[in-house]
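So, is this right?
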Amino acid sequence: MKKNILYLAIAVIVGLGAGWLIFGNSSDTSANKDVSEMSDHDHAGEPANQMWTCSMHPQIMQPEPGDCPICGMDLIPADAGADGLAINEIKMTENAMALANIQTTIVGNTQASDADGMISLSGKIATNEENDAVQASYFKGRIERLNVNYEGQQVNSGQLLATIYAPELVAAQQELITAASLKESQPALYKAVRNKLKNWKLSETQINTIEENGTVRENFPIYATVSGTVSEVMAAQGDYVNQGQPIVKLSNLNSVWAEFDAYESQIAQFKVGQKIKITTNAYPNKEFEGTISFIDPILNNATRTVTVRATLPNRDNLFKPGMFVTAKVKGTTQTMENTLTVPASAVLWTGERSLVYVKTNPNEPVFEMREVTLGNRTGETYQVSDGLNSGDEIVTNGTFTVDAAAQLQGKKSMMNQQMMPDESAMMGDMEMSFSNAFSSDFSEALPSYLKMKDAFVASDAGQVSAFAKTTSEKLKTISTDDLGTMEKQHLTKSIEMLDAIANNIILENQRSHFVILNENILPIAMNIENSINYYVQKCPMANNNKGAVWLSTEEEIKNPYYGDAMLTCGSVIDTIR
């Protein structure tokens, strides 16, 4: 009996041990499997590099959740994009493509055509200095009467310019009258006195009249020796003038100069004797042909341009000095074979870098931003030396819209991408071309921009909005007919950002738009003629530590992005003189 109980106890123990080994280990394996599956399930739906953005400020990109540094809203996961897309690729819907009128072009090698090599230039009419003449006083005296009083007055040869009282001439006339009575006995003296009057430009008739009448004339006339238009009055009635002192400057406008600014990169495209076709707003339906007569051998260090001049006949007085003109010239340097060209509308500028959007999937609207290296600009096309291959399909219309879509999807874009060090200081290297008329109109909008900047410094959202509206209204009145595509895009984007600032009452949101505004408006300001100095200033901490620039007439730093919080944060990185 005892043995049976012992055997039974041993059997129970063995059974329990075997059961634990079989079922317990299986349970642990199952539990571990469940944990593993749960772990796999938890992470399967998350992107490998999840980024977080702000719904109101999509330029904010952070690797972890938190609050937006601009508006304080909770960050949301950035859209990782459709399956199969690279990290910087974006996909647009066909409907969005149609609404934005996005068009693409396949890049190919340059094909020869009659229009190849046409270069557009802007300039103005100037007086032909070769035909200028200065009418001077031939003797010392006081101007009793000045018959030429204003610029633009027409003067004919022989016309009375002024009447002068000249004490020396009075004495010389008296000498002539005395010598006339002695001309038989002292002919040498008589001849010397007459020659003295001739040297003062008195005619034989005038000298004979003095001799015959025997009277001294106190006030003596000065007559014009050439015909022309008065370009400068150099003396006033009642002035004392010396012998040879200029009284009036005359310009013969039968021929004029058309002077154009050519960029440094275009110099090789011009030569003396080259034909040039000129148009002007005054006669929009007429085209005038001229010949390049002069290319300035000295480069303007401030504008990095040279003056290209053509001489134009003007017998019908169609051209007025100061008139704005445009010209087209066929470059002398032919485009090299196998050179890729792209339309100017395809290029986005961020300082010295240029960007295009390439369609990476031929069957779907999938795009990727790509940096390219540009060569010379000819008309509305750029040569591309690096970054594209023949056969690539790029966006040529609606490029800003594609970039905005990339920004909203949290992808790399022109506005999201951090500037290279000191890149904002190189905005002036953008090759932009503006007429003097545009420069003048654009300069009139800068004072209201500066007032808006000062309102940012004062953190006054209401005044910021008001001055942004004023600046936008002034920019909208500027004619864009003679602007290139790239120049027009920068102006349009500037107006868009100004309207966004004007329609917003939240200061931090206004400042985020101010960042983009300056990235577009500063390149324009740095490529036009300015009558005063402007300072390009930069705060390295603004724009989420990416840095942001602004324009000021004062060298002292007053930060518009932080106001009193960091009033002196920043430095001058460039000067527009």
